[in-house]
Amino acid sequence: MQRRIEIGKPQSFSRPNYRPDIDGMRALAILSVLIFHAYPSSLPGGFVGVDIFFVISGYLISSIIFRGLTLGTFSFFDFYARRVRRIFPAVTVVLLGSFVLGYFLLTPYALEELIEESPYAAFFLENWRLYVTTGGYWETATELKPFMHFWSLGVEEQYYIFYPLICFLLWKVSAKRFLTSLVLMLLVSLGLCLYDTANEPVRAFYSLHTRFWELLIGGVLAYIELKWPEYKKNCVTIGGNEFINNALSILGLSLIVFAICVFEEGKDFPGWRALFPTVGSVLIIAAGTKASLNKYVFANKTAVFIGLISYPLYLWHWIFICIAKNNLAGDLPDGILMIGFIVASFLMAYLTYALVERPMRSRKATWQLILILVLVLALISLGTKTLIRKSQTLQNMLYSGLPIEVQETLRDLPRSEERDVECENLFGQGHSICRSTVKNPRILLFGDSHNHIMWKALYRQENLPGFYIVGSGGSVIFDRATLIGGDGKPQIERMERVSQVWDTLRRNKEIDTVVLRGFWVGNLRSQLISEKHLNLSGEELLKQLWRDTFEELYSLNKHVILVLDNIELSFNPLTKCSPIQRINLSTNPEEKCSVRIEDIDQDQIKIREYLIQEAARWKNVKVFDSWEALCKNGFCNMNINGKPMYRDENHLSVYGNALVWQKLQHYLN
C-alpha cells in the first residue's frame, strides 16, 4: 500500500543512482556554450549546449519527483529547499563578483545598468525581461548584457516551480495515465515552439511554454526507466544490450555534434532544429553507463570534473567575457586576454563549487536556512539597486576619479529641468523633455531622444532664443504612427504623446517654426505602423510618413528646419576614446576616435539622401546637416581636444550637442 504524500514536511528522497557520464554530458554542454561565446566562428552552433542542459535537468529532476511519488515520500518543501540550496548561493556570489568586476571594467552608467538588471537575474526573470526589452538573443544590445545568460536559468527555475505541482496533481488524478499526460504536454509545448519560432521568434527563444518540452523529454525518459527498466530489450530485438547501448550513444552524440557544428545563430531556433540536441541528449542518457562512449568518454575524470563545476562555470564565463566586451566597446577580447578570462572563469567556478555550492548542499535544509539564503540574495540584488538609486554618495563614488569631461557627459539632467508647466499645458504630459525658454515662444524643437539630450547642453546657457523643446525617447515624430515594441505590439502610449504635439501645432498659430531632430536611421531600421496607412509597411511606409509630415506642416504654414542626424557608430566611442573605465583593456584606446565618411553604413547614407531629396520639394523646409559641426576633411571625430563628442553609439554628448547648437541656432533667426 502506498504511503501518504506529505506536503511541507522534509523527508529524504529516494534518489536515482549517481551517473558520472551525465556529469560528462554537462561538460559537453558547458564547453559548447563557452567556446561559442569566446570564439563564435569556431563553434557556430555551440549555443545548443543550453538545450543539452535542459534535457539533463528535466531527466534528473523528474527522476527525483517520480520516485518520490511512487514511494509516497514526495515533499514539496524538500524539493524546493534543494533547489534553493543548489542555486541561490552561487548566484549570490556571482552577482557580488560581477559588481566588483564591473566597478573596474565597466563605464559607470553600464555598471548602473548591471545593478538595475541584477534582481531579474537573481530571481530568474531574465528571460522575461529580455523578451520584453530586446529584439532577441542575437542582437548586439543583448550580447552586451552581462546577465543575459541568466535567461536559461529563468526557464529552468520557472519549470521547477510549476512542474512538481503539475506532476503531483496528474498523479493524484490518474497514475495509470500519467505517462500519457506527460507525452501530451510535451507535444503541446513542441507545437507551441514550432508556431512561435515561425511567428514570434523572440518569444519562442525565451519562453517557458516553448522550452517546456525540452525539459519534459528528459522527464518522459525518466518515467519509462523507472516503470519499465527493461524497455530497450522489449523495443529492440536486433543485437544484444551492448550493441543497442553503443548505437544509441553514438547516434545521440552524432545529432549533438551536427547541431554544434552546422547550426548558426539567429537561424530559426529553437523550432524543429532543437530536436537535434534534445533527442541526441536523450539517446545518450538512455544508452546508460555501460555504453562505451558513456563509460570511456563522458565518465572520464576530466569530463566529470568539468561537469561538476558546470553550473558556476556557466554563471562566471559570460560575466568575464561580456564585461570585457563592454570594456572594449563591443569587441571580443582576443589572444592572451581571452585565454586569461577563460582561465579565470574555471578558477572562479571551482572556488564557487568547492567553497560555496558543495558545502551548502550538504547542510540540512531548514526553513531558517532557506529564508536566510533568499533574504541575502534579495539584499545583494534589490538592496544594491535601491541604494544606487537613492544614495547620492554611492552615485558620486561610481563617477569618482573620472575626467571632468566624462563626468559632464554622463551626468543626468536634473529633474527640475526636464519639464515645465507652460510646456506641458500645451503639449501634454509624459514627454522625456518638455521645456520653454521664454513665455509663448514661436519656435518648437521637436523629436526623440536625440532632441531630448540636446537640452543637456543648453539648459545652463544664457541668452537662448525663445523656443519650446519637446522630445520623447523611443518615439517617432509622425502623427498617428508608432514603433512596434519588442513584444510585437504597437507602442500606443508613445503614439498618443506625439499626437498631442501635432494637435497643438494645428491649434497654435503662434508657433511658426518647427525644428525636427531625431534618430532617422533608427526609424528606417525599425518596424513602424501607422493608423493612416495600415496597408503600408517598411521603407514604403516611412517615406509616406515623411511626405505626410512635410505636407501637413506646409498646409499649417510652418517653417521647417530638418536636422540631418549625426552618424551612428558600431561601437561606443565614449568607451573607446575616453578614459572612462578605471581599467581599460584596449591596447590602443585611440584607434577608433574618428570614422571615415566613406565607411559609414549604407542605411545612414540612404536616409540622408532621401531626406535631402524630399525636403527639396517643399519651399518651407530648410536642411541643417549636423555633420557640418562634427565632420571635417572626410572624417567624423569622436573626440575633439580631449572632449568626448558622443555619449554612446548614436547619442551626442553635451560637447557634441554644443557644437551642433552653435551652427543650428543661426538657422533660427
From TrEMBL:
Gene Ontology molecular function: any one: acyltransferase activity
> Where do the TM regions start and end?
21-39, 45-66, 87-106, 178-197, 244-263, 275-293, 305-324, 336-355, 367-388
Question: What organism is listed for this UniProt entry?
Answer: Parasutterella secunda
Q: Is Acyltransferase found in the keyword set?
A: yes
Domain SGNH, chain residue ranges per copy: 429-660
Domain Acyltransferase, which positions? 21-352
Q: Which PANTHER family match?
A: ACETYLTRANSFERASE, ACYL_TRANSF_3 DOMAIN-CONTAINING PROTEIN
What protein am I looking at? Answer: Acyltransferase
